[in-house]
Amino acid sequence: MIIRPIRHDDLDALYRIAVESGPGFSSLPDDPDVLRNKIQHSIESFARKVQTPNGESYLFVLQDADTGAVMGTTGIESSIGLHQPLYHYHHSQEEYRSRDLGISSHVGVLNLGSHYSGCSEICTLYLRPQYRRLHAGKLLSKVRFLFMAQHPQRFADTVIAEMRGVSDEAGRSPFWDWMRQHFLDMDFATVTRLVGSGNNGFVSELMPRYPLYTQLLSAEARRVIGEVHDKTRPALKLLQAEGFEHRGFVDPFDAGPTVEAKLTQIRSIATSVACRVEIATDQRRLETEPEHLCILANTSVDSFRAGIAEQMHYRAEDGVLEISRSLAGALKLSAGAQARFVQLPLSGSRVADTAFAVQNNKEPIHAR
After folding, report:
1. Which end of the chain is more exposed for a tag (fewer CB within 10 A), N or C?
2. What fold is seen in the domain 271-343?
3. Active-site choice (83, 229, 246, 292)
């Protein structure tokens, strides 16, 4: 399995992913023209020389090294909300108290805003069901952090991830059902398609601008505020293990939570190791014990490659990582080249990867 930047000839595979993912996966609408533009923008972003983030979009694919098939995709937005707002509701509690009567009450409130303007976002994570295998989900999730660790100037200090909220197998969202009934008579699939296509002006025009008291919502809508789809929980747990936290911001359409972390405090970034590569002349030196597995990436931008190093030997005293010639070739690493790796956590890995792959009724892995 190899991670690389997306190319134009990946359009058909990306379209199939967009169709499979269904409503709610707003970052990949099933529109070939939109997807073609996303690929072009990603290619331009990888080619651009960047000192500060300015709307670049990096889209990667996971490729089967043997067949060349695209197994999944994952992405990073360098700075969201600069050219058009990224809207969220902030879910908080207000207290009302009468001293004369000795009565108090707590009321849930939703306030619409664009708090995360300028932040970086990890997104577009999807593993196709037929390619579920050990470590594939972790590779798609963690490779973004290796890229960010190597090129921090391309990203903001705060990184967010929008998690898919609760919806049923038909794509109906309890939260949006209530919003649709009272404010915007448009089905959930259409709304997410508009947002994914970059058309979200209707949010400020038609959605409620004033504080929305959650007691006015239906019980079903209230219950899902800040909750994730059952099959998105493994993806959320991986991000929580990286240090991401939910601070009350939720999606305005399905009320799924947005989690955030400081770039330098993300665990896989903080613990990643810069090293120099050597090609092992004696394969017996390479360790194959599970505790030595890691995700390894080169330091290129437009020729970025990453994969699982199942055999390696790290010499901490001189910062040298010995790997096989075949892995070096797959990752475009020559002897003496700089690279970066992060250890792959293996506790319950086989179970975790199987669960992480099951993300909707067609069993992909995805966040928004």
Report:
1. N
2. Barwin-like endoglucanases (2.40.40)
3. 229
